[in-house]
Automatic annotation (TrEMBL):
<dbReference type="GO" id="GO:0051213">
    <property type="term" value="F:dioxygenase activity"/>
</dbReference>
<dbReference type="InterPro" id="IPR006620">
    <property type="entry name" value="Pro_4_hyd_alph"/>
</dbReference>
<keyword id="KW-0223">Dioxygenase</keyword>
<dbReference type="InterPro" id="IPR005123">
    <property type="entry name" value="Oxoglu/Fe-dep_dioxygenase_dom"/>
</dbReference>
<dbReference type="GO" id="GO:0031418">
    <property type="term" value="F:L-ascorbic acid binding"/>
</dbReference>
<keyword id="KW-0560">Oxidoreductase</keyword>
<keyword id="KW-0847">Vitamin C</keyword>
<dbReference type="Pfam" id="PF25238">
    <property type="entry name" value="OGFOD2-like"/>
</dbReference>
<dbReference type="GO" id="GO:0016705">
    <property type="term" value="F:oxidoreductase activity, acting on paired donors, with incorporation or reduction of molecular oxygen"/>
</dbReference>
<protein>
    <recommendedName>
        <fullName>Fe2OG dioxygenase domain-containing protein</fullName>
    </recommendedName>
</protein>
<dbReference type="GO" id="GO:0005506">
    <property type="term" value="F:iron ion binding"/>
</dbReference>
<feature type="region of interest" description="Disordered">
    <location>
        <begin position="1"/>
        <end position="49"/>
    </location>
</feature>
<feature type="compositionally biased region" description="Basic and acidic residues">
    <location>
        <begin position="1"/>
        <end position="33"/>
    </location>
</feature>
<keyword id="KW-0408">Iron</keyword>
<feature type="domain" description="Fe2OG dioxygenase">
    <location>
        <begin position="229"/>
        <end position="328"/>
    </location>
</feature>
<keyword id="KW-0479">Metal-binding</keyword>
Length: 333
């Protein structure tokens, strides 16, 4: 088992990873057109945004600066702002092309469109029947087990479904590789895995959030203001020749559901080190906050996003986990 997190280790804020510019056989002919000059309306919007930025910066400049110093500083900051904005806009354009390419060309396993593929229909997801019954009867204690303060586990999927989902994810990554498409990774820390929302699973994950995660979260985290109305769903992968672990971090979410899909592996526990607000996220863990969670295929672990955690190093095999970050737009935390 990994040693306890050292007090001096910095907690990372894990966030959605931006799409990076890439080429594929589907977009190689129109790449230049995607970055063509803006329309008159877009140019007007850009000029307006730049003027707002200038007004904001100048309103915060010290009165003790000379005219020349103010001008030099403004030009420097404005140049940086323009470069950053252009880079962001190019990333957004490439992300749109990435999604468009998938929607227009991707076929799931058995050469089926996601819109008609059984695995992409939430009613076909093999959820634990006892979980459904517990939610319908408002009898959460029959399935939820609190393994540590604020950390809950429950049986979510059967193993057959987990293997079907893994096969679909592998099929998507193989399709991307064959067509020269670089898979958009889940976030700013994981180098392997895929965003499920990007290739047809968004409706399923929306239903998973609404019908499973939200009622469970309302029961155990009553201080979180409903509704839970936004999500980011993805799969991460750990193996000996890929990512072996994930550093200490907090999630960009109000509530996180983490379900182990498989496969055979040893090690890779989740270490938890206490809940912290943004102001105190770097404070050391207390002895009673240390907890290690062992993954079991088909089982989920539920925790708040600000419960600091890390994925300990895997020692053999391959582990894939479905992770659903759930957010309420009315969050106070």
């Amino acid at each position: 088992m990994d040693n306890k997190i050292q007090e001096e280790e910095k907690v990372k804020i894990i966030d959605n990873k931006k799409y990076h510019q890439q080429e594929s056989k589907f977009n190689e002919h129109d790449h230049e057109n995607s970055l063509s000059s803006s329309s008159a309306e877009e140019e007007e919007n850009e000029n307006s945004a730049e003027q707002q930025f200038i007004n904001y910066i100048t309103s915060h400049l010290s009165d003790h600066l000379t005219v020349e110093e103010r001008s030099d500083y403004l030009q420097k900051v404005l140049s940086q702002w323009r470069k950053h904005r252009k880079h962001t806009q190019e990333e957004q354009q490439m992300y749109k092309k990435y999604i468009k390419t998938i929607k227009e060309n991707y076929l799931g396993t058995n050469s089926l469109l996601p819109s008609v593929h059984p695995l992409y229909q939430f009613q076909n997801w093999k959820l634990n029947p006892k979980l459904i019954q517990a939610i319908n009867e408002n009898n959460f204690d029959s399935v939820l087990v609190q393994v540590h303060p604020g950390i809950y586990t429950f049986e979510c999927f059967d193993e057959e479904f987990c293997q079907q989902l893994i096969a679909e994810i592998n099929h998507f990554e193989k399709w991307c590789l064959e067509n020269g498409i670089r898979v958009q990774r889940p976030n700013s820390m994981n180098n392997y895995g895929a965003i499920l929302d990007n290739f047809g699973f968004e409706p399923c994950l929306q239903d998973l959030m609404t019908h499973i995660v939200e009622p469970l979260a309302k029961h155990v985290y009553s201080y979180i203001t409903p509704p839970l109305d936004s999500h980011h769903g993805f799969v991460v992968e750990y193996s000996m020749n890929k990512d072996k672990k994930l550093d200490f971090h907090v999630d960009n979410a109000d509530v996180t559901l983490n379900v182990c899909l498989g496969q055979e592996f040893t090690g890779g526990q989740l270490y938890f080190g206490g809940v912290r607000c943004q102001e105190h996220v770097q404070t050391p863990s207390l002895p009673n906050e240390d907890f290690y969670f062992d993954h079991k295929i088909g089982y989920g672990v539920l925790h708040v996003g600000k419960h600091r955690h890390r994925a300990c190093e895997i020692t053999s095999g391959t582990r894939l986990n479905l992770i659903l970050w759930v957010i309420t737009t009315t969050s106070f935390l």
